[in-house]
Amino acid sequence: MEEEISLVEIWQMLKKRLGMIFSIGIAGLALAAIYTLFIAVPQYSSTTQMLVNRPQTGETIQASDINTNLQLINTYKDIIKGPVILDGVREGLDVEFSHTQLSDKIQVANQDNSQVFSLTVTDDNPYRASEIANSVAETFQNEIDDIMKVDNVTIISAALPNTSPISPNNLLNMVIGLILGLMIGVGLAFVLAFLDTSVKDDKFISQELGWVNLGKISEMTTDELKSDPRKSELQKHSRTARTRV
Asked: What does the angle CA 232 – CA 235 – CA 240 come to, to the nearest 5 degrees?
């Protein structure tokens, strides 16, 4: 027969180990705080914006010209993060990053149907992040004419240092640490409860073992013994009898 556990029994099982659960939760919060405040390296981002706009042959802008510019942006994203651009940036700034490391710091994005795309650099130094972003944008603008035989990129917004870190998120990390700690505490409480093979009530005797319950013997607390002089006297005589024996 499958054993069923009611919500009341689950609550009693957790209530019995609330101290342990909260202790593990506080430990998770403390570990998250230590990592966030003392171990994690803050990251800063800086963004520059560029406009892709091909020279127009007529006085009016054709829809086909806009579509061509939008398609070029996808090509430009690959060119910006390629060695043709980044090797020149590394030489110009004299940074110790490899091509892969520098490429991982760069993110190029644009909104749908927009000829403006943004180039964002993330680094642990806010001033170096803006310096890299501006250098990549300028190098790309200078080299694209030789690469694509077209001069259609304009820098419309230079990158500025942003001293507010984008990561780590102190509050979010600590909340996650607290929640994970509580979850581990609850899981451990269930494990300890299921490993506990002691008899909790008379249901186990009658339902699982099939024995007949002949009665219960309640254990009196110290306060109950003190509240009834006769019981206290009986307890004293019982102790005296055991001493004589």
From this structure: 130
Q: pTM higher than 0.90 for the full model?
A: no
Strands lying side by side in the sheet with 106-110? 106-110, 116-123, 44-52, 153-157
Query: How far apart are the C-alpha atoms of 26 and 71, rounded to whole Å?
Result: 52
Q: Phi, psi at residue 109, to the nearest 5°? A: -150, 155
Residue 17: count of CB within 10 angstroms of its CB:
18
Q: Which amino acid is at 163?
A: T
CB-based contact 11:119 (threshold 8 Å): no
CA dist 184 and 189 (Å) reads 9
Structural domains present in the chain? 1-40+168-202 (no CATH), 44-157 (3.30.70.1130), 215-245 (no CATH)
Cα 242 to Cα 43, 157, 218, 224, 236: the distances in Å are 75, 94, 21, 22, 10
Task: Tell me if 107 sits within 8 A of 65, measured CB to CB.
Answer: no
pLDDT of residue 230: 57
Encoded tokens for 123: 């680094």
CA 115 from chain center: how many Å?
34
- Provide the percentage of residues in the chain whose pLDDT is more than 90: 51
The answer to whether 138 and 80 are in contact (CB under 8 A) is: no
Minimal CA–CA distance to 40: which of 49, 31, 28? 31
Query: Residues with Cβ < 8 Å from 207, sequence gap 6 or more?
Result: 1
φ and ψ at residue 159, rounded to 5 degrees: -80, 140
